[in-house]
Hints:
The protein is an all-alpha fold. Helix content is 89%, strand content 0%. The longest helix has 22 residues, at 39-60. The two termini are 12 Å apart. The mean pLDDT is 93.
Amino acid sequence: MGLLLASAIALVLILEGLLPFLDPGAWRRMFERALQLSDAQIRMLGLSSLGLGVAILLVFGP
């Protein structure tokens, strides 16, 4: 279980690092736009991300 969790965290870090590495300007613009979102919009984005992650785990998980 520990190795699986470590692998999942490593994959998230890899995916999170792709855009700033490949196109730092686009990452900066996206971050600046994210700062302009309301708390409700950020919460909805987080909820959508959680839901998508759970759905992917249910479809492709062990």
